[in-house]
Amino acid sequence: MKIHGINGLTLLDYPGKMACTVFTGHCNFRCPFCHNATLVLNPDSQPLKPESEVFDLLKNRGGRLEGVAITGGEPTINTDLPDFCMKVKDMGLSVKLDTNGSSPDMIKRLIDDALIDCIAMDIKASPDNYAIAIGLTSFDMSPIFESTDLIMQSGSQGKIDYEFRTTVVGGIHTEKDFMKIGKWLRGAKAYFLQGYRTSEDQLNPAGLYTVSVEDMQHYRDILLPFIPQTELRGVV
User: Fold this and answer.
1) Chain mean position to CA 119
2) Which strands, in side-by-side order, build the sheet including 94-99?
3) What is the DSSP letter of 157?
4) Cα–Cα distance measured from residue 88 to residue 66, given in angstroms and rounded to the nearest whole number
C-alpha cells in the first residue's frame, strides 16, 4: 500500500484509543475544503513510506498503541488495503478506516472479513449538493447511498463501530443540507459536525469561510430529531 505519511501517536484520529495514523495518497474527490491537497493532487511529491516502517513502529510500541487509523487521500482506492489491515489485525491491534464512502464493495469486504473495527465516513453534503461539495461537475450518489446503508446495517448487527461526519463549510452548506441529511441518515448511531478551518495545504479555499458557533449549534438542532447522537467537534 502506498503510504505517504505516518503519525506515530494520536489521541484524536481514533477516538478512545492510543493509535498510529497512516496517510495514503490519491483521492477520487476534489473537495475544495480538503486540508490534504498535496496527498490528493500530487502525492508522488511526498516520500513513500515502506510498510515495514509502520510495522516496525507498531512492534517498538507494543503494549502502548491500541490501534491504527488509516486515512488519506482515500484509502479504499488501494486494492491492497485488505492485506495491510490483515497484517495490523494479526498484531492484535484495532483498525479504524476514514473514507469518503465511494467504494462500497471495498468497505463490504473489509467489514465481512472483520478487517476493520471502526469506520468514519465523511458525508460531504446533502445528496443534491454533493457534486459541488466534492469539487466535481456531476456525481452519481449510488455508491454513497450503498455505503451509508451498509455501514448502518453492519453497525446495528454489531459488526462494526461507526460514525458519520461532515465538515461544515460556509459557502457550501446551508440549513437545507442538514434537514436533508437528517432525513437521509435517520437513526444513525453517531454524527459529528466538524468546524472548518483554512490551512496552508488546502485545495481551493476561495469563497469558503468558517461557520459561526451559533450556526453550528443551529444545524445540530436541525439534526437532533433525526439523529439524537449528533455532536459538534472541533468547534470553539
Assistant:
1) 8
2) 3-10, 19-24, 67-71, 94-99, 118-122, 161-168, 191-195, 230-233
3) T
4) 11
As a whole number of Å, the end-to-end CA separation of the chain is 36
Neighbours of 25 (CB within 10 A): 26
Whole-angstrom Cα distance, residue 65 to residue 170? 37
- pLDDT tens profile 181-231: 999 999 999 999 999 988 777 777 788 999 999 999 999 999 999 999 999
User: Exposure of 120 by Cβ count < 10 A (0-12 exposed, 13-18 middle, 19+ buried)?
Assistant: buried
Domains and CATH numbers, the chain: 3-233 (3.20.20.70)
Q: How far apart are CA 182 and CA 209, in angstroms?
A: 23
Residue type at 81 in one-letter notation: L
Between CA 236 and CA 230 the distance in angstroms is 17
